[in-house]
Fold:
Amino acid sequence: MKKTAVWACWMLLLVGVASCDSDREVQCLHDPQKKIAISFTPIEDSLPAIRNKKDLAHFFSRHLEIANIFFKRQNYPNDSAFINHYYRWFSHPSMDTLLLETKKVFGDGSELKNEFQVAFSNMSYFYPGFKPPHVVTLITGMETDLFVSDSLIIVGLDYYLGKKAKYRPDMHQYMLQRFEKNYIVPSAVLLFGIDTRYNHTVLSDHTVLADMVAYGKAYYFAKQMLPCAPDSIFIGYTGKDIAGAEANQDVIWKKLIEDEALFSTSQQIKQRYLNERPKTYEIGNDCPGRIATWVGWKIVRTYMKENPTITLPQLMATAQAEKILKESKYRPETH
Structure:
């Protein structure tokens, strides 16, 4: 009886967890009745299983997009040089380690597939004509991380194995933190959000403000596609970074005004406030890099709160950054 009771308790718990997961998914969909089907093909077993050059050539002939887009076939003088290079690459024993770790982190890929499905369902909600791209996952030996187009997404899963992985991408630590598995789908939808097919801009406007608002719109767009994902995932900050930026937003805004940054077209100013850096040292050693893009996101959010009748497609079609700033009535909160 005790065993039966314990088993029954575990079953109730598991049902409860499944119910919670289901409820959370419903909350993450703008219209739960319109969850769309997607095409998702995991082929991470394929390349480590290659045993000769003929098999590798056959693989690439069946996956021309992967050969050309992900592995840059055009950079090699001929097919033989291309196949010889990658045969050495994929026959290395480290590929077996990468495959084992990928299986451990991603399992059968169902969790990643479901996250893409949620994002694409929400995109279809806002843009009814949207056709979800085909998603392919594989391991590349740390060759490439992510490719996104309107018809195809390719994910190099081994880039996203996380802190415990034996092999990690060769990059600075402040950038490396963005290569965890929970960043994959947010990164993909963010690329849709910055694409000019969705994110309209004034092409002749090269000011810092124009870039701030364009990034802000992209972050806002991505958040609508994955409303349950934390803000830190989209902008690539830690929770501490977000908290610090929120607490010092008045200081950040004051510095941007003092430096006359908003309407500047100076590459030096853009490097300081928009480009990839570990910190924005001009503001403080605890201020994260790319801080003006975070301010741009704040401006866009404020604009949408001030204009509740504006839809996401209408926001994305508003090209004038100065119009969004003015109508946002943005004023940083003081703490």
Observations:
- Residues 223 and 230 are 8 Å apart (CA to CA).
- The beta strands are 40-42, 134-138, 146-148, 152-156.
